[in-house]
Amino acid sequence: MWTRRRYYWLLLAFAVLHVVLAMSLPPSGDEAYYWDCGRHLDWTYFDQPPLMLWTTRPFCLLFGDVRLAVRAPAIVASFLLGVFMLGLVRRLGGGEREAAWIYAVLHGTPLFLLGAWYLSTDSGMLAAYVAAAWAAVAIAQGERRAWWGFGVAVGLGFLSKFSIVLVLAALVPVLLRRESRAHLGTPTPYLAALLCFAITLPVWIWGVQHDWANFTFQLEGRHRFRPWTLKYLAEFLGVGTLLATPPLAVGMAIEWWRGWRRRDYAWVAVLAAAISPFLLFGAYALREQVGDHWGAPGFVLGGVLVGLASPRPRWLVRTGVAFGIAFSTAAIVAALFVVYALGATWPWFGHSHGDWADRVASAVGNDEIVAEIERRIHPGEMMAAESYTDVHVYALLSRGRLQTRLGLVHGGAHGLASLFWYRPEELRGKDFLFVTERPGLDAPLRERFASVAEEEPFLIKLGDHVIRRVLFYRCHDLLHPEGAFTRLAGASPAP
After folding, report:
1. Residues of 316-349 as b/e, b for ≥16 C-beta within 10 angstroms?
2. What would the pLDDT profile of 181-190 be if each residue is shown by its tens digit?
3. What backbone phi and psi angles, to 5 degrees, belong to 134?
4. Contact of 422 with 486, CB cutoff 8 Å
5. Peptide bond into 26 cis (omega under 30)
6. Nearest Cα to 141, choosing from 261, 265, 256?
7. What does the DSSP assignment read for 47-114?
8. Cβ of 31: how many Cβ atoms within 10 Å?
9. 279-337, pLDDT tens digit by residue?
């Protein structure tokens, strides 16, 4: 029944589902950030590799600055992941039927279904991770030319997200095989490594230009080490398991453990690639909070193991898929009807409040805020904010009409790519309408501008409740852009 043509029709059917979801749900702050980076093409960016950010640009030029165009690279990456998965499954003894089953079951997990259309650096990295695992299995089975595929996959994955390097763990069992080690006596692995390095050159070029700020951030700036604790490890494993659904996660763990009995170098390569994200990020989670989704490559390869199991743990799969679809549906409905969720009175909890409500409220009223900014802004002024989320969301929702700038007057570590787009002389003397929801910023603003005047705030209400209070400061003549508005050096003085 399952021919290759039918398998590709399945991938297209899921791509249509991804398109519908991408067109329906509002953009997030990170997606707007990536879109804005795509408008300012550079070798790479301060805190993100460039591939997924670059690829937003051709789609936006073709379709305009709309949700589908922004998210199109993620949809393409999810389709390619399905293509690479078929190659991996066939190498491990399965076929189109098993690959179709795995791809469909993974869509029963919130981790995969919600991430298959949402623009993130993870979507490109996941496709590359599966491709690299496929190449590693081929190398273990004697295919010397698969080194080229491994090099290209790791190189492109590195341009998507740096954590692709964890797939290198697959080479450890591969090189335990004598026939694979014999490849090291030929030029192929070294030329493939050179090709991999050539693909990643944009990251190194930007690093040289900016005193390695991108690597300093990844190695030091993003880490906030705390005393040893199991709290963050429990969050990492617990929330990750919830996103992969607990029954399916249990099935993946069982099949990972059973996989060692095969004593097959190809299988062990997949097992090593699957476990490495949990080992590294689990170690980090003993000292700091890590991303709940960072174990995604392990869960995807875990899905491959479950799909090739004999017999399959069918009751775990069915329970997991039912749980995952219910979870994903609830999340999608909440995003579509967020205003009603905030206005509802919930059993046992009463009216929505607290940290959850504050985070959800940040997605409400953005269109109204953009309209208010455009009404207030004067000719020649630019809009600025201390939140990188607000800066880029307002730019995206205005379809690029608003000239926005990040003004980091309150500090922050993420979303700072725009500080490397403009030199001090391009900003000095400019007037800004500063927009924020954080009170108490008038003092730091006065340290940088010749004059600052606070205006009437703008309120977003839900019934009688004020859910967002937006403050406006009219800032005249930027005197000191260095540090807060730019991290680039100014032009050299004339001799």
Report:
1. bbebbbebbbebbeeebeebeebeebbeeeeeee
2. 999 999 999 9
3. -60, -45
4. yes
5. no
6. 265
7. SS-SHHHHTHHHHHHHH-SSHHHHHHHHHHHHHHHHHHHHHHHHHTT--HHHHHHHHHHHTTSHHHHT
8. 21
9. 999 999 999 999 989 999 999 999 999 999 988 888 889 999 999 999 999 888 877 77
Residue 294's nearest CA partner among 307, 272, 279 is 279
Residue pLDDT, tens place only, 42-72: 999 999 999 999 999 999 999 999 999 999 9
Q: Are 186 and 144 in contact (CB under 8 A)?
A: yes
Domain residue extents for the chain = 4-331, 366-478
Give the Cα separation of 386 and 411 in Å (integer): 8
Nearest-angstrom CA–CA distance, 388 and 408: 8
C-alpha closest to that of 480 among 460, 453, 440, 452: 452
CA 109 to chain centre: 17
For 254-290, the pLDDT digits (tens) are 999 999 888 899 999 999 999 999 999 999 999 999 9
Cα gap 333→337, rounded to integer Å: 6
- Residue length of the chain: 495
- 69 in Cβ contact with 60 (< 8 Å): yes
Nearest to 210 by CA among 476, 426, 423: 423
Contacts of 189 (CB under 8 A, 6+ apart): 147, 183
CA Rg, the chain, in Å?
24
- 372, with CB counted inside 10 A (0-12, 13-18, 19+), is middle
Q: Is the C-alpha dihedral spanning 367, 369, 375, 378 positive or negative?
A: negative
Looking only at the bridges linking them, the beta strands covering 404-406 and 465-478 are: unpaired
